[in-house]
Design brief:
Distance between the termini: 37 Å
Helix content: 25-40%
Shape: globular
Order of helices and strands: HEHHEHHEHEEEHHEHEEH
Strand order of the largest sheet: 2-3-4-8-7
CATH topology: Rossmann fold
CATH superfamily: Thiamin diphosphate (ThDP)-binding fold, Pyr/PP domains
CATH architecture: 3-Layer(aba) Sandwich
CATH class: Alpha Beta
Structural class: alpha/beta
Radius of gyration: 18 Å
Number of domains: 1
């Protein structure tokens, strides 16, 4: 974490909606008996902020040209995206039950399918941000008013293609581009400090000419406020919102545990513990009005 300000990141209890979305992640994980669960759980509030409060989109008209583009660059964390797409009505909840099946709608990495809300095929790390920069340039030239939001992983920033893309984004003053960093400080090989340190991240982004904000990535109101503030501009440089998160957030035994980066072969006892962790005062199931 960056300084004392984020030592207690994610300390507030999760609300019912965030628990519900995590249960949707587990529904898909249980169906496929595999998935990048830790990587997905750190991003739930990021995607909630985008789909519920910030991005312009319409599930009833998914190919609407005026929609904002939301790209998940760290494609292995796709279960978070799928949970929001199901909750918002882009896909049927039943699609989660076929996660990773042959010829199913939802694979282990997103495949471009605008009709179902998936804007880009991702998973080869370091590609999503360059793609988002290209989209932002195109929409700026067309004066379409479309904004581009791209979620990247902090470990993904090891890839040099991201930094080349930021140079281009700053050069063309892409105020319509917002990069959101899922900064959970862990990657598949271990902590970022051990594998390849990237701090001071904010200072790096600012040196590239970006407007930058730091937030607790599990404090929904703070994430929404930061995203609204930086994405409401029509001129100026691109923006970066660094969301300090906890990998595996919501499941105590998975939090910051590298063994939960990817899981398969879950035994009944572990599945029961997952259900217990994500239960709440309300009966397990979706909040009123969200079941589709």
């Amino acid at each position: 974490m960056l300084g004392d300000e984020y030592v207690n990141c994610g300390s507030q209890p999760l609300d019912e909606k965030s628990l519900h979305l995590r249960r949707l992640v587990m529904r898909a994980l249980r169906a496929a008996d595999k998935g990048h669960v830790g990587s997905a759980l750190s991003m739930i509030e990021i995607f909630r902020a985008l789909y519920e409060s910030v991005a312009r989109h319409d599930p009833a008209n998914p190919k609407w040209e005026g929609r904002d583009r939301i790209i998940l660059s760290k494609g292995h964390g796709c279960l978070a995206l799928y949970a929001l797409l199901a909750d918002q009505g882009y896909i049927d909840l039943a699609a989660l039950d076929r996660f990773c099946e042959r010829d199913a709608l939802l694979g282990g990495h997103p495949e471009r399918d605008p009709e179902h809300g998936i804007e880009a095929s991702t998973g080869a790390l370091g590609h999503g941000l360059p793609l988002a920069v290209g989209m932002a340039i195109a929409h700026k030239r067309k004066a379409s008013g479309v904004r581009v939001f791209v979620v990247v992983g902090d470990g993904e920033l090891d890839e040099g293609s991201n930094w080349e893309a930021l140079l281009i984004a700053a050069k063309y003053k892409l105020a319509n581009l917002t990069m959101i960093v899922d900064n959970n400080s862990e990657q598949i090989s271990g902590s970022l400090d051990t594998v390849l340190p990237i701090e001071p991240l904010r200072e790096k982004f600012e040196s590239f000419g970006l407007i930058t904000a730091n937030v607790d990535g599990h404090d929904l109101a703070s994430v929404v406020e930061a995203l609204v503030r930086v994405s409401s501009r029509v001129q100026g440089p691109p923006a970066a919102v660094i969301c300090h998160t906890i990998k595996g957030k919501g499941v105590s035994f998975a939090e910051q545990n590298p063994q939960w980066h990817y899981k398969r072969g879950l035994d009944p006892k572990t599945l029961a513990h997952l259900d217990e962790e994500l239960a709440s005062a309300r009966q397990i199931g979706s909040p009123a009005g969200t079941e589709r």
